[in-house]
Amino acid sequence: MRPNDPQGNPSADEAITAISQVAYGFMGSQALFAALDLRLFTALESGPLEAEPLAAQIGAGLDPLRSLLEACVALGLVIREGETYRNSKAASRYLVKEARGYMGDYYLRQIAETLYHQMPDARAALRGEAGANYSAFLNDPVRTEAFIRGQHAGSAGPAYLLSRNPELANYKCLLDLGGGSGAFSIEAVRRNPNLAGIVFDQPQVVTFAKKFIAEEGFDNRIRCVAGDVVKDDWPQGGDLILLSYIISSYRPQAVQEMLNRAFAYLPKGGGIFIHDFAMYGDRPGPRNAALWQFANLAISATTYPHRQVDIIAAMNIAGFADVSMRPHIPDITFLFSGRRL
Question: Which of 69, 87, 209, 336 has its CA 20 to 30 A from that of 166?
């Protein structure tokens, strides 16, 4: 087979390998979910182990475990040295239960247990069939609990990053629109003692947000209000608005209306943070943001792949000043900010 030509076109072998990696992607994700379910990475964190003692420790069949281990090696999650296996640096940081950056519950609850099974709805939306919407998605209480608990686990890291933003010290009350589990509000008030919070979301979601907030001991500083971000009046009192993972679920006109409304709501000197997926305007991706945009069709048929420049333009049109944008979660999300002068 010929190698790449001078124009960078892949050979036939390279092309089919690349396509196969996409088609087989679900196999890798299922291997990750299986390893997390068995707490394989947590077991390996104490030191390298051979397959047999590892199988005994985590309660797995020895021969099936060998297949899982080799899959994890191929994925770069586990490193094999002779007959022993140990965690990669990434697995130690994000997949070990006790790790500060642990993401396992997010992958298991929100991705494996919830979103994975909803993906046919994304394909239905593309065929023009009745699309999914967030309110209907929450009608199943079991699914809602799994989704919100997974969301809470997955938001811990991004929320911590946002809580360190020095701009938070300029405000008194954060209105967390579509605030989900309250993870962002919890971290914001934790690091900013002069800040209070309001979590505004669907009634089914607020039920769980109240539990998480109480467990963290912030129910005296964060209140929860039930309602629809688009249809209902927003609770009064906020001087900083947060829209995290919200605008990606709406088309441009709806986003512009939401930002116009946010500007009118805020007092002079008030601010806005938008944390969400966004596409580059001049090059492909970010890859994971693009994949999430597609996957989000399973929850909201009105999902739209907004470009960074379009979000900034919409904020300017709404009247916000000092609009800026920076990466937040690498290869996935960005943080946009602005102020009402």
Answer: 209
Task: Kindly indicate the confidence band of residue 185, based on its pLDDT and cuts at 50, 70 and 90.
Answer: very high
- 181: nearest Cα among 204, 162, 200, 209: 209
Q: What is the pLDDT of residues 112-158, one digit of tens each?
A: 988 898 899 898 888 887 666 777 777 788 878 888 888 888 898 89
Pair (262, 132) in one structural domain: yes
Range of the domain at 53: 12-94
In a domain, 2, yes or no: no
Domain at 315, CATH number: 3.40.50.150
**What is the tens place of the pLDDT at every residue in 187-217?**
999 999 999 999 999 999 999 999 999 999 9
Q: Considering the domain boundaries, does residue 99 fall inside one? A: no
**166 in the same domain as 130:** yes
Domain identity same for 86 and 114: no
* Residue-wise burial string across 144-182, b where 16 or more C-beta atoms lie within 10 A, e elsewhere: bebbbbbbbbbbbbbbbebbeeeebeebebbbbbbbbbb
- Residue 69 neighbours by CB distance under 10 Å: 23
Does 5 reside within a domain? Answer: no
- The residue to which tokens 């009105």 are assigned: 302
Helices (H), the chain: 12-23, 25-37, 40-44, 51-58, 62-74, 89-94, 104-106, 116-126, 134-137, 141-163, 183-191, 203-215, 252-265, 287-295, 308-318
